[in-house]
Amino acid sequence: MRDLIVTQNITVDGVIEAGDWFGPADGGPEVLEALREQMARADAFLTGRVTFEQMRGFWPAQTDDPTGVSAYLNQVQKYVVSSTLQEPGWKPTTILRNLDEVRRLKENPGRDIVCTGSIDLTHQLIAANLVDEYRLFIYPTVVATGQRLFPDGSPQTLTLTSSTTFPSGVVLLTYRP
């Protein structure tokens, strides 16, 4: 069974909603290297429709992307959880209609399935107990407003499996439920 990994860029106060506090290269070259290592361990990228459409409108056009994110996203098998999306328009992409299909995807052979962004989908995955690991890139920023990784009423007991501090002040914490 494959692991479903929630990887989020998050502020010290727990906000995962993107803002001007985050950019893919903001954590420095060491954070980018950690991202590349994670991309190498995953062969599936899971997202919700809104995040998928935002990414589809941006990443394929990034021809001089030094981060490697564009190249990865253009080739990795993408899965979009959506009840309304008809034609993804970004290959290779498969549309999953519900969380039961996500559960079946986890049962297939393969490497990690990574979910990044997609706040609503992430909350649904947490509520359905489908998350096997959290990889949190914590940025030394407090924004004091925005959506959080764990919504109210979703208590979790997590076990820290690793931590890495980067020169930029970003900390990568890895937890398993």
TrEMBL record:
Bacterial bifunctional deaminase-reductase C-terminal domain: which residues?
A: 4-172
Pfam short name (any one): RibD_C
Q: Output one GO MF annotation.
A: 5-amino-6-(5-phosphoribosylamino)uracil reductase activity
- Residue ranges the record marks as coiled coil: none
Which InterPro entries did the record assign? DHFR-like_dom_sf, RibDG_C, Riboflavin_Biosynth_HTPR
Which superkingdom does the taxonomy of this entry point to?
Bacteria
Q: Name one GO biological process term.
A: riboflavin biosynthetic process
Protein name, per record: Dihydrofolate reductase
Species source reads: Kribbella jiaozuonensis
Q: The organism's lineage?
A: Bacteria, Bacillati, Actinomycetota, Actinomycetes, Propionibacteriales
